[in-house]
Each structure stands twice: as C-alpha cells, then as structure tokens.
Amino acid sequence: MKQESWPKNHNPSLHMSHSEAEQKLNLIDTHCHIHEADYPLDREAAYQRALSTGVSRLVCVGTDAVSSRAAVQFAAQHEHGWASIGLHPHDAREGAAALDELRQLAGSPKVIAVGECGLDYFYNNSPKAEQAKMLRAQIELALEHDKPLIFHVREAFDDFWPIFDSYSGIRGVLHSFTDNRKNMERAIVSGLYIGVNGISTFTKDEAQIDMYRSIPLQNLLLETDAPFLTPVPLRGNVNEPAYVMCIAKYISDLKSISLEDLARASTSNAHKLLF
Is the whole model's pTM more than 0.90, yes or no? Predict the structure, then answer.
C-alpha cells in the first residue's frame, strides 16, 4: 500500500506482552515496508521486536526502483528479511526506466517475488493505460524468473481479471484484500492467495467481515503493510511486523480456530508461495 505520508502519532517504545505459547508461534509477515528510508521507527529495533514475537521471516516489498533497491539491500543485511521488487500502480508513470532497474534486481539473492504491482483506480495517480502496461510488464518479468507476484488491486478488478486471465502459470497473492466475496472466490479458483492485514481487525463492514471469515485457510496469508494499517488494539501507533500477531489472533477468533492452527496454516502457505 502507498499513501502520502506515514502515520504521525506513534510511540517507538510501545511493546506487546506475549504468553510463552504465543512466543513459540512461527509467523511470517508477507508484506511490510520497514526498509523504506523514511520508515518512522528505528528499523533495527522493529526488526528485532518482530523476531522476539515469533516472526520468523518478513518480506520487504518494493514500490518503485528506489524502494526495490532498498528492499534488496535490507534483505541482504538481515538473515530473516526477504525482498520483493515492484512498481506500484501509483508510480506506473515511471515506465521503462523503473522496469530496467527491476530487471537488474530480479536475479539478486533473496528476491522472492515481483510486486507490489497492479491497478489502483481509487487514486488514479497514474493513467489507467500506463498502469495496465506496467502490470503486464511485471507479470512477464515474474514469469520469466519463475517468481510469484504481489498484486495491489483497488476498485479495478473489472480490468484486472482480463489481464490476469491472458497469462498462464501466474502464482501470487492479492495483497491487502478488502474487496467482495465474489472476487475473493474468483481469486481462490485462480489459485491465488489472499493477503489479510490490520484492516480486517477494524472494519465495520459486515460483508467484509464475512468475506474474511470465509477465506479458505489454505489460501490465507498474513501481512502488516507496516507502517500502514495498524491493527486493533494498537491503532494510533506506527505499524510494525511484530503486530502480525494481532492479526493472527483476530482471524483465528473470527474463524473459530486455534491461534496455533492459524499460524501453522498461514506460515505453511507463505512457504509454498514465496520461499
């Protein structure tokens, strides 16, 4: 996810207490942005807090050429960090120059995915035609390197599905999924995973809540999108990978399954898709 500024009200010293059982959980944050130069917390401290709360791996997701280089560098310097390289639809107007950079980064060690890429018609920061062109280019890059894709699709599924369906062999996840159950089910049929983050913990939309409840366990991935979308009960603070625990707790309660089963399934899914 991209927005104009980071959250402003944050408490860098905030920490969560965890039971011994929770600390033994193995969780993966499949989408965060703590590698960004302007991430508003101490990145090293946030990384260590994630490890101490049971996060075994975190994926730093690029949104443009600069961000993707930073993700690759962060992953190279951190044992439990991994990178995805991509051009966000907001920045699709960067075009060929950014794509050239992504092509150079695609073979870097610990680059495990392409994205986030897709279509965003909520903001339309780049022309729709350019968004579609860059989405196709990144799908082709991922297929060339046999890597999964991290898709960002907002109010644009009517145009996304025809592009998606024009290729075969795509593996990927619909990041920060908030759309309707129909598109969720179509994604499942298409073999995609569904990325669930803090929005699930604070939405009041009953249809959305029902959609989250109905995501098949074998298609569920957990993500924070840190520093954005801080989950309940930590709203008002800058998000960080450690808070994936809050999302895991919420979804396990929503689906009436144990936290251990939720963690086991989501982590297994992340390994199947990304590692």
Answer: yes
